[in-house]
Structures are given as C-alpha cells and as structure tokens.
C-alpha cells in the first residue's frame, strides 16, 4: 500500500504517474532505506521539510543506489499534488533544491507549453548545485540544470517524456517568442551609447567663441604690418598723410578764379 499511487490520480501521458520512472530505478527506490524511513506517509505539505533538507540532486550512485532527490521525485509522482502547490514550490527562491525538485516534476508531468512558460524564467538563476552520480559529486548551476530539462532526453538517469519543440509551438501560435535577457542587455547598452553620442554631438555643435575675439592685440598689430625689403615695417592701414586735393593746382597755389579778394586792395 505504501508504494501505490494515490486514489483518484490522473493518468499522465496515458499511464500511471509512477511509471514515468523506469522499472529498475523504481524498484531500487522502493527498496532504499531513505524511502522506507523518510518517505513513508508523506503528504504534499510534510514533503516540504524533506525537500528543504536536500543537499544534492542526481540519479543513482555507488552500487546503483538512488539519491534522495530521486526518492522525493517518485513520492511526488505518487502523491500527484495540485498545480498551485507545485508553483509554490517553484517560487521558493531560498530553497534551491526544492525548486529543482519541482522543476523536474513539472518537466515530467506538465504540457509542453506550461513547461516552457514555467521553466524558462528560471534560466536567470545562476546558483550552484551539487550533483551526485556514479562518478561522485560535482558542481553544476541551476540554469544549466533547467537547460538540460528543456533540451536533453535524460536527466538524473530518468528518461524524460517527449515534448514538442519550441519552434513548432511558436509556428502554431501556442506560445510567444522567447525573450532573451542577453538581447535586452545588448539593446540597453546600444541605447546608452546612442544617447552618449547624441550628447557629445550636441556639445560639439554648441556655439563657440569667435576667433577674432580671441586674438591678442599683438597679433592684430603684427598682421597690420608687413616687412619691406629694407627690413622696416610699413603700415597698410589708411595713411594719415596729407594728400593733395584735386581742387589744388600742381604748383601748390590756388587758382585766381576761386579767389574772392579784390585786386585793388592788394
């Protein structure tokens, strides 16, 4: 009775939810001490304590022993909690291993559209995860684990159910295009660069002082004089020297026609 699926459970992908785990691994989970001691009589609420206590993810290790992660995953498949509870598991940022457990269950049981909509936002989580397999312990990151759930066929020694590709769902209009954080960051940088370039252009186009005002008196004076052949400077400015008026005669005397003096008084 402890290994049977809860009554009223809905078939997932046309079969019993526990059958999503391979028979060999499922039998090893039922025979493990962790399953018998810690997974007995668990509910969707009491399972949270065990999920918070997880310290690694992975499949089988050593002598084909299942990890605690796999045991709790099979327990979730046996209990089949409501969707709202799983979303609450997924939104618990402070408990990364419980979040990874909920992501694994969602990938195995939810539809393809829901899988993309719920798991893709988790790609921005870059925290480290401890992974255990036949080779021992290793480190991975949360975004790498989510990427493997979305792209690979086998994760943690479990064969994942097939799902439609994202490109096909986009062509059918079932899901919108994926928003890349890297593209948004690049667009933000390009906008900042365009703003800075526009500001620099506006500064360069601002009215500057006239070059004639910046000239010193010495430069203006030096330009008004040019060196002559004898080494002297001759001014090009309008000369103040007296020029002979055209009204005066070449001899320097005035013409008698313009004289108003009476000759008899001379």
> Structural class, judged by helices and strands?
alpha+beta
Based on DSSP secondary structure assignment, what is the total number of beta strands? 9
Strand content: 5-15%
The secondary-structure element order is HHHEEEHHHHEEHEEHHHEE
Which strand order does the major sheet show? Answer: 1-4-5
Separation, N- and C-terminal Cα atoms: 160 Å
Classify the helix fraction into a percent range: 40-55%
- List segments where confidence is low: pLDDT < 50 over at least 5 consecutive residues: 208-231, 237-266
Q: Total number of helical segments?
A: 11
Largest sheet: 3 strands, mixed
Q: Please state the CA-atom Rg, rounded to the nearest Å.
A: 47 Å
Structure description:
With 266 residues, this protein is an alpha+beta fold. The protein has a domain at 17-171. 42% of the residues lie in helices and 11% in strands. The chain has 11 helices and 9 strands. Strands 1-4-5 form a 3-stranded mixed sheet. Strands 2-3 form a two-stranded antiparallel ribbon. Helix 4 (68-79) packs across helix 6 and helix 5 packs across helix 6 (96-109). The termini are far apart. Residues 208-231 and 237-266 have low confidence and may be disordered.
